[in-house]
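seq:
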Amino acid sequence: MNARTQAALTLSAIVVAWPCLAQEKVYSRQRDVLVEAIRNGHSAGVMHGEVAEHFTRELRSTSALRVEARVLQAMERETCKRLEIVYTKDGVPTPQGPTQARLTTQLNYCLDGGPPAGVPGME
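struct:
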């Protein structure tokens, strides 16, 4: 394949992918991800700021940190939910070569930042 054909294919791939990248939500605080998930049932995008910097340092990968949160369960208070949060980072170096790292966690969270009512040990 000549250089001109390769450049055209690369440009085509960028043009096709660009709308998807442009529409991706960017979060700078974990709280924003959690609040959006509580309000809409789901949130997803790219994390920037302290959380992303921590993942970059720990995993030694400069790729984007993707985050997704979803409601697992409603709590007694309407503004409190049980959430699942998934962080994903590509290009993490391992002895076998680069791989994808994924951290999945769950937590109870309320829009006001207070503890949810009706959870054993939280009253």
